[in-house]
């Protein structure tokens, strides 16, 4: 167990920062003549749009905390996980000094955020054909100046979960910040590690309503961490970072629960089986997410040809260790059928005709 000193890892300017005191921090009712708002109600779905939203996100944080099984002081919401990433860099990473360690291949935004902030990002590799994570390897390889490790589980685009015990070992044995991005965790067959933030003061978990909850448009991501880390995030966030409509929609989404999760999971299995039956398709990676990643010769060309036919998938071939791979999101059944149909026409024109004439996956033939 290494020693962990949160304050020593926080950028000195943030440690001493006096945050902006917003008018709605503590007082949200009464004769509100303190925030230079327009006093005349503009109402939308019962929300007074003329008033600033709750900077403390009280109702939303309570609902998120209930959902993940933590307390409101463990939670803070931002405009997508992208904003949570922004806080992590602002609080912990000094430009030109500290390093961000990124386990690759993974979600590209960690590196982009590092570039935006002028923080050097060092890429460490996930291990082997199954892209697994080993804490002891990480501890050997991570440069001394690395302050934050970015882990993604289940990982985008490889689809696999990182071994939970390994993540916790890193938290215990590395006295720096461990970020675990669980954007896709609702699609996985193992639950979130949210409860671990109680026992691990250096663990920050990122979650989002953009995937399983089907709310990408409202931009709502959230951080789970110790109340001390959350307080630092509160210090650096814009006072009214989350608009009132998003806060309300977030609460409603949590009441409704994930959207069509079972259907997406069954389509994931169906799409996997169908791809397995196409001889041109190489290994299909085990996926705990709402996408499949598979190998196929000439992946880039195939993606371009699919695009010409109106089917948009992601060429991941340029990522480290992912030559000739395509990532396809799980769509609605008829969309998956269209993808399969066009894909077969490109890689095995005869079998596409046969499949259509046997009534297998005719485009648009299935409905949700
Ligand atoms: N994390 C991962 C691993 C992702 O793949 C994505 C979106 N592609 C995000 C975070 C972004 O989530 P949000 O919409 O909450 O910004």
Through-space gap between termini? 50 Å
Structural category is alpha/beta
Helix and strand pattern: HHEEHEHEHEHEHEEEHHHEEHEEHH
Bound molecules: 4'-deoxy-4'-aminopyridoxal-5'-phosphate
Radius of gyration: 23 Å
**Total number of strands:** 13
**Mass-distribution shape:** globular
Low-pLDDT parts are 364-368
**Helicity range:** 25-40%
The biggest sheet amounts to: 7 strands, mixed
Beta-strand residue percentage: 15-25%
User: Could you give the order of strands across the largest sheet?
Assistant: 3-9-8-7-6-4-5
Which whole number gives the mean pLDDT? 94
Number of helices: 13
Features:
globular, 35% helix, 7-stranded mixed β-sheet, disordered C terminus, binds 4'-deoxy-4'-aminopyridoxal-5'-phosphate, alpha/beta, 16% strand, 4-stranded antiparallel β-sheet, 368 residues
Blueprint of the fold:
Layout: H1 6-9, H2 12-15, E1 43-44, E2 47-48, H3 58-68, E3 75-78, H4 81-92, E4 99-104, H5 109-117, E5 120-125, H6 135-141, E6 146-152, H7 164-173, E7 177-181, E8 203-208, E9 221-224, H8 227-236, H9 244-256, H10 261-276, E10 281-284, E11 291-296, H11 299-308, E12 314-315, E13 325-329, H12 333-347, H13 349-357
Helix pairs in contact: 3-9, 4-5, 6-7, 10-12, 12-13
Residues 80-82, 107, 152, 156, 181, 183, 208, 210, 216, 221 line the site of 4'-deoxy-4'-aminopyridoxal-5'-phosphate (PMP).
């Amino acid at each position: 167990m290494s020693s962990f000193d949160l304050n020593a890892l926080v950028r000195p300017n943030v440690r001493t920062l006096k945050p902006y005191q917003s008018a709605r921090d503590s007082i949200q009712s009464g004769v509100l003549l303190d925030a230079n708002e327009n006093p005349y109600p503009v109402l939308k779905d019962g929300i007074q749009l003329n008033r600033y939203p709750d900077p403390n996100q009280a109702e939303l944080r309570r609902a998120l905390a209930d959902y993940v099984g933590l307390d409101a002081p463990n939670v803070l919401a931002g405009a997508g996980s992208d904003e949570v990433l922004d806080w992590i860099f602002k609080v912990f990473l000094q430009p030109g000094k500290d390093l961000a360690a990124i386990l690759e291949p993974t979600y590209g935004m960690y590196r982009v955020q590092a570039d935006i902030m002028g923080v050097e990002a060092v890429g460490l590799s996930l291990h082997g054909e199954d892209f697994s994570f080993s804490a002891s390897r990480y501890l050997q390889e991570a440069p001394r100046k690395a302050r934050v490790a970015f882990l993604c589980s289940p990982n985008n685009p490889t689809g696999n979960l990182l071994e939970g015990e390994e993540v916790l070992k890193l938290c215990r044995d590395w006295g720096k910040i461990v970020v675990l991005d669980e954007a896709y965790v609702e699609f996985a067959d193992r639950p979130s590690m949210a409860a671990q933030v109680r026992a691990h003061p250096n663990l920050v978990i990122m979650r989002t309503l953009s995937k399983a909850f089907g709310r990408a448009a409202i931009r709502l991501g959230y951080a789970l961490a110790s109340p001390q880390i959350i307080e630092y995030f509160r210090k650096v966030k814009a006072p009214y970072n989350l608009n009132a409509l998003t806060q309300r929609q977030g609460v409603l989404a949590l009441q409704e629960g994930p959207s069509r999760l079972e259907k997406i999971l069954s389509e994931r299995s169906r799409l996997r089986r169908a791809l397995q039956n196409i001889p041109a398709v190489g290994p299909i990676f085990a996926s705990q997410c709402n996408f499949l990643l598979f190998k196929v010769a000439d992946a880039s060309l195939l993606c371009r040809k699919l695009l010409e036919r109106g089917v948009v998938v992601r060429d991941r071939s340029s990522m480290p260790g992912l030559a000739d791979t395509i990532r396809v999101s799980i769509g609605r059944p008829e969309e998956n059928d269209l993808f399969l149909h066009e894909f077969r026409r490109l890689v095995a024109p005869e079998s596409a005709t046969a499949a259509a004439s046997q009534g297998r996956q005719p485009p648009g033939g299935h409905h949700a």
